[in-house]
Design goal:
mainly beta, Maltoporin, Chain A, two-stranded parallel sheet, globular
Length: 569
Amino acid sequence: MPEVLRATGPSRDRPILGGMALVSGALLAGVVPARAEAPPLPSEVGPGSLPMTRAAALAGEAALPATSPEVRLGGFGLPAGAPPPQPEPEPGRRWTVTPSIGVQLMGTDNVFQTVRNRQADLITTITPALLLGAETSRFQGVLNYAPNIQFYADTPGQNRMDQRFNGQGLATLVPGLLYLDVRGASAVQTIAGGIAPESTVVTSRQNKVQTTSFQISPYLMHRFGDLATVQAGYAFQYVDQRSSADASQISLTPGGLPTFTSQHFTAHEFYAVGRSGPDLGRLAFEGRLDSTSYIGTGVLDGAYRRNASVEGRYAIIRGVSALLEGGYEQQRYAGIPGIRIDGPIWSAGVRIDFSDESRIVAKYGRRDGFNSAFLQASLALGGRTRFSASYSERLTSSAGRAADLLSTTSLDELGNPIDLATGLPAVQPFASSFLGAQSSLMRIRAASASLSQSWPRDTIALTVTNEERTPVSVAPGTVGFDQDGTSGSISWAHSFSERTTAFAYAQYGQFSSGLLGKGDVVTGSVTLSHQLQPRLLGTMQIATSSRSDQRSTGRATQNLILVALRQSF
């Protein structure tokens, strides 16, 4: 059996969906479905401007229109990570290329966020960036590449360059038949965790993990009139999670084993999806075949996932559909112990469509060798308010999750990730440092709920998230540990004018970890962004973050102030 550090706290077998389901039910009370039609299946046009990819088809759910907020809360890279607003492109212009460079000066009173021996430092960050956009009849895509190059005045051993990019593109090779989907992402997180997911906190380079993932997928799609649509293809995936040479030292357990080691894999996936069309009226079917083989290190060395399933949907009444799914799966994973799963997969549930932009899907069934619930809701509560909620359970690793995330997120026009189902901004797990990184195969329970409201000058968002990670198999030479984290945040953006915007953010979270014990983290920031010139953006930010855990003997508080300029060309 693997060596697993158990955190004290509630049983890991309890469901965490109940409270969220009650909230969702209360919000849904009294809402009347607005349309009557056959149960919708994935359309050929997915979120944003990109046509439906293989991921949307394999997920078995049509994506909602991706409507980005008028003012984004937070940003990619620096607080001034996005280039200043640009003039409208010339009519007929299909390609946009926006190079820019940002310079940021950050002062902090606790560069390593330690309880004792606090050390101040001045950090200079240079961020050259390239934003590419394409919208042609044969190719649609966006790429945001913004590496961070950091120089420390008093601790030059911390100098480093963090790679950060998001990109997706879809090429139509043969209209109506052959497509090529390309995706990639790269971001940085901490190993030990215990840091607010959206904070600007600074930490040691020995506590950093760089995750880079790529995916390329050619596929065929053919429509047989209104009878059916068939899609089949291949996907090549590559994921690399790499830390500094001595980074594992920061995650040593009392037994002397690290919780994380650098890992990588390549994967070969073959898939086929068949969906019925409107000819069947109230009834709809979708069949899926998928086989993925892994070549790499750790728990994914020689692993594979294979599954076949058929889902049926029947429109009971106006806007309400019953869901029933059945199939079979095979999964193999390396690690200690080795994991073998052979058995049926099934689910039953309901789907309610209130409008083109409001939907709730709830299921209960068996997948990945265990029974679990699934919830996905996105509701437009009036013209300015949107509520979304989700709950899911998966068997995966941190490296495998990075690859899966490429298939469950899209990008907005600035290259920021948005959720494929709701169109709302998404926090990538490999860019969040709330929970620690480890190399184990884990059962992950993730729940979230958010409420956002947009006005002409203001955008306010409330978000609550909970995630539990339970290791079931560990990579040789490492140790796994339970983790559980719940956090709540409020963010507010106010536009004083077309050139000046203020952002305020506050978050509180509690976590329980077999590595750090129980702890909490609180963070807050205020940011002012002003467009100095048509292509020059200035930013100032004041932020504070404080954390504690049972491994430490007090609270570690870090305050910082930064100024930044970004010039686009």
